[in-house]
Write a structure and sequence with these properties.
The chain is an all-alpha fold. It folds into 2 domains: about 30 residues; about 130 residues, Cytochrome Bc1 Complex, Chain D, domain 2, CATH 1.10.760. It is about 40% helix and about 0% strand. The longest helix is centred in the first third of the chain and has 26 residues. It starts with a helix and ends in a 39-residue tail after the last helix. Heme C binds next to helix 3, helix 4 and helix 5.
Length: about 160
């Protein structure tokens, strides 16, 4: 009986010594994993966003706070500027074609990576507050290929809204 108590004590002690400091340390490590609940399946894409987009863009779900480009939570807020499909197309076009006369360069990501990041942004943009999650399941959501970027040389993508 007392052996059992001892075991329980050890488990409690281990939780205090190992788990709590670990939680504190991982909490304060660099990128702020914010207030948006990100699904396990989206963690890889989140890192793709952090590495390729986060320096310029704020997106709460990715914990990034770049200010070179627009805050994507604001610009793509659900109910404001569209649903998943519309935002997906919009993000993909920006990534593949660039945006604003090259202020955002074209082809930062291509192919599947571009589609995955577009789906991630469309699923999470504007999802602020505790308990919120993705608008769609990114593993089953539609991820159509990008349209063409317009053929005229030097086209000003900033004037195009592909929706
Ligand atoms: C070098 C900085 C930079 C990087 C890196 C960058 N962007 Fe941008 N992005 C911008 C700027 C600047 C604008 C706004 C241009 C304007 O409005 O003139 C913009 C605009 C956008 C828009 C708005 C398009 C619209 O229709 O309103 C989206 C969406 C976007 N970026 C997504 C992304 C994603 C996703 C990535 C990563 C693959 C990314 N950006 C990487 C600078 C960047």
């Amino acid at each position: 009986m007392s052996k059992r108590l001892f075991v329980i004590f050890c488990i409690v002690a281990a939780v205090c010594v190992v788990v709590i400091p670990f939680a504190v340390i991982s909490d304060s490590s660099g990128v702020e994993d914010g207030r948006v609940a990100v699904a396990e399946r989206d963690e890889g894409t989140k890192e793709l966003f952090q590495a390729n987009c986060g320096t310029c863009h704020t997106l709460a779900a990715a914990g990034t706070d770049g200010v070179v480009g627009p805050d994507l939570d604001d610009r793509l807020a659900p109910g404001g500027n569209g649903d998943y499909e519309g935002n997906y197309a919009r993000v993909l076009t920006a990534v593949v074609c660039g945006f604003g006369n090259g202020r955002m360069p074209a082809r930062i990501l291509t192919g599947e990576n571009a589609k995955e990041v577009a789906a991630f942004v469309a699923a999470y943009a504007g999802q602020l507050g505790d308990g919120d999650g993705p608008l769609v399941d990114t593993s089953t959501a539609r991820k159509p290929a990008p349209g063409s970027c317009g053929s005229s040389a030097g086209a000003d993508e900033g004037d195009q809204q592909t929706n």
